[in-house]
Amino acid sequence: EVHVLESGGGLIQPGGSLRLSCAASGFTFSSYAMSWVRQAPGKGLEWVSSISGSGGGTYYADSVKGRFTISRDNSKNTLYLQMNSLRAEDTALYYCAKDFQVAVSGRFDPWGQGTLVTVSS
Amino acid sequence: DIQMTQSPSSLSASVGDRVTITCRASQSIRSYLNWYQQKPGKAPKLLIYAASSLQSGVPSGFSGGGSGTDFTLTISSLQPEDFATYYCQQSYSFPYTFGQGTKLEIK
After folding, report:
1. N or C: which end of chain A has fewer CB atoms below 10 A?
2. Using DSSP, how many helices (H) and how many strands (E) does chain B show?
3. Which of B38, B55, B96 shows the shortest C-beta gap to A106?
């Protein structure tokens, strides 16, 4: 069964850094692009970043560009999101999602259960 | 950025009803439109991709239509488990953008 599981969230002060991880299982990880999508409390969905299966292509929302870095370790079947210079508006549940092909397509399935990031002093 | 606008934002309906949710893009996105269902406390689930293709495992009561800028998600006969929030999303160009959501509630 295809499964993705996020970890690494927590309470962090404004300006701080955090690294999220997403462990994948049940599929050939390197053959699929992966993405991060976030949801602020009580709000809608916001795409954050995507990465191709090889890791050679990365894409970011303007709201996180220059502060967040997406990466993957295909030998460990793990996706990462390095989050620097965190702001209060980054507070959200961060979901990891699998794409349906090796290149980024924007079709997200399945999604993990999410990891909560709270940016507050 | 491409703006996605859903209507209505909320909808009350009864079990057995046929309901349609609409999604409009601010520019043509051809058929690069996906629909997701999200239940409280759960992750979103892909229902429809490429505007009208049913994701594997999704009940046939769900259907999608449209192309260009105007799209629909139709549930032919509401089941108790269908009460949730639905989001459209364009995958035509970066940044990928979602509609604001339509909350489907029990009447």
Report:
1. N
2. 0, 11
3. B96
Query: pLDDT band for position A102 (50/70/90)?
Result: very high
Contact criterion met (CB < 8 Å) for A108 and B44: yes
CA distances from B1 to A28, A61, B105 (A): 32, 10, 30
Give the helix ranges, DSSP H, for chain B. none
DSSP A12-79: E-TT--EEEEEEEESS-GGGS-EEEEEE-TTS-EEEEEEE-TTS--EEE-TTTTTTEEEEEETTTTEE
A chain contacts of residue B96, beta-carbon cutoff 8 Å = 47, 50, 106
Per-residue model confidence as pLDDT tens digits over A38-63: 999 999 999 999 999 999 999 999 99
pLDDT at B99: 98
Residues of B in contact with A95 (CB under 8 A): 43-44
- Could you tell me the pLDDT band of residue A34, with boundaries at 50, 70 and 90? very high
Of B43, B44, B91, nearest to A106 by CB-CB distance is: B91
pLDDT band at A3 (very low <50, low <70, confident <90, very high): very high
3-class secondary-structure state, position A89? helix
